[in-house]
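WARN retry 2 of 3 for item q-0093 after timeout on previous attempt; input resubmitted unchanged.
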Amino acid sequence: MLIPHLHFNGNCADAIVLYEKAFNTKADEIVRNHDYNSEKYSGDMQIAHANMKIHGQIIFLNDNEFFADKNNSSNFPVHLIVQFQTADELSSCYEILKNENEENYPFTNTPYSELVGNFADKFGIWWGFMVV
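OK item q-0093 returned
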């Protein structure tokens, strides 16, 4: 099993909310960082581990600053491909995830799909959307 793992730099909770809305799903588990020497727990703390399913594929997410730091040479881009049944379903999800501040690759018709396109969301995650 291949499990994509997405690392965010302090905004994993925002990413989960956005992805839940865009893909009509819910996070199955969210584990927040906390001080193990204290009984105190804050719901505002960063996420140590979360998982959710997007189109049937399990995805891990967390607030790991080392991997999410764009200035870190160990940071490798992630490109996730999502296949939709219809162009309308694709367009609806894209409208939620698109980042107005980034230049995206245009959606186009190809021999293997009626609609294909790639873009980065506001968290820097690269998505490839296509219609089956």
